[in-house]
Specification:
- This protein is globular.
- A seven-stranded mixed sheet has the order 1-3-2-4-11-5-12, sandwiched between helices. A five-stranded mixed sheet has the order 8-7-9-6-10, sandwiched between helices.
- The chain is of the alpha/beta class.
- It contains 14 helices and twelve strands.
- Helix 6 links the parallel strand 7 and strand 8.
């Protein structure tokens, strides 16, 4: 199959399956208008805006957004401009909301960001900052799989065709010398694209033998008797790879740079607070998850999941380029032109004011 055909089918699948990514509330679920963060008396609007609409997933890999919201940091930086929120459960849904103008800024995984950027010819979004690294594991049924070589011939779940974890698993399988058809998931390993909400039940019933999934799904599987066979971080230099970025609608970035800068200040502050107060931050993130999804994560799932995620202001741009290369090698993506996908100007301005080192776009920044 030509790569261009594979790309079209993959993008169509990503659009047609809006519920097959990280579990959270439904597409565009809006926050309650009486959000806990109140506008300070005497505060002024930022860039003259009544509101800034922020999107994220109800997932621990979006810890920066969870904590930033729960602690009122976004509202504090935006002044009298109201921080409004939408919680998503899939990257394609968030891309759709960003492109339609339903949200202005969002927390998003690398594969949806790459797809959104390339599909629009580089016109719809920019990556303006990093947020998280790690938090992805291969968890297996130890009764069926005791070593990496035992994965061959088994049924392994990933969250969605062409999503970040799907690409990572296909690339890893190829490095083992195994052949898998990326579109059908059939081959030396059977890839089962499964919603993270139902993967634990599929694992428990035995319909899948393991899963390459993000947190907290990985820790849910461990709670069901699974064993961590591989932490994806071990495959990357310095054990760092991008799992979540901050993206913005390009028109909003051009028209309202002060508002974007305010959100980035809140993000940097949130990451600093998370790293300085990990236990309090874990509780804050779980509290916001409870608001977004209706219930908090139990302690035996929250603790290991939180431990494997690292928040970072650095977008780890070189690893995004590598992840795109993996998608091309697997046949899920034509060779993309990612030049200009990053605009780190405002982030580096914020970091400099905070006394921190600037971050690099690995040659993929705006001119």
């Amino acid at each position: 199959m030509p790569a261009s055909t594979a790309l079209r089918r993959t993008l169509a699948a990503l659009t047609a399956l809006p519920l097959l990514t990280l579990a959270a509330c439904g597409y565009g679920s809006q926050a309650k208008t009486d959000d806990t963060a109140k506008i300070a008396a005497g505060a002024k609007k930022t860039d003259g805006l009544d509101s800034v609409r922020i999107g994220y997933f109800g997932n621990l890999t979006h810890a920066t957004a969870l904590v930033g919201r729960e602690q009122g940091l976004f509202q504090k930086e935006l002044g009298a401009t109201k921080a409004q929120y939408a919680v998503f459960n899939a990257g394609p849904s968030e891309i759709e909301a960003l492109n339609s103008g339903s949200i202005d800024i969002g927390w998003l995984g690398p594969s949806p960001a790459i797809n959104g950027y390339t599909k629009s010819g580089g016109k719809d979004l920019k990556i303006i900052g990093g947020s998280a690294s790690g938090g992805v594991k291969l968890v297996v049924n130890p009764k069926k799989i005791s070593s990496l070589k035992d994965v061959r011939g088994k049924r392994i779940a990933t969250p969605q065709l062409g999503n970040t974890q799907d690409v990572a698993f296909l690339n890893w399988a190829a490095e083992q010398g195994w052949k898998v058809d990326a579109q059908t998931g059939k081959g030396d390993v059977t890839v089962v694209r499964s919603d993270n909400k139902v993967t634990p039940d599929a694992f428990k019933s035995g319909s899948v033998d393991g899963a390459w999934v993000p947190e907290p799904t990985a820790s849910r599987l461990v709670a069901e008797g699974g064993k961590v066979l591989l932490d994806e971080a071990s495959l990357w230099p310095d054990k760092k790879f991008v799992i979540t970025n901050i993206v913005v609608r390009q028109g909003f970035l051009t028209e309202h740079p002060k508002a974007v800068e305010a959100v980035l200040r809140a993000s940097v502050e949130a990451n600093k607070w998370i790293n300085a107060n990990p236990e309090q931050a874990k509780a804050a993130a779980n509290k916001q998850l409870a608001v977004d999804s209706g219930k908090p994560l139990p302690a035996d799932i929250l603790a290991p999941a939180w431990k494997s995620i690292r928040v970072t202001d650095d977008p780890l741009a070189a690893t995004l380029r590598t992840e795109a290369d993996h998608a091309v090698k697997s046949g899920l993506l034509d060779e993309p032109d990612l030049s200009g996908i990053y605009d780190l100007t405002l982030l580096n301005k914020v970091l400099k004011a905070d006394g921190a080192k600037p971050v690099d776009a690995a040659g993929l920044g705006s001119d």
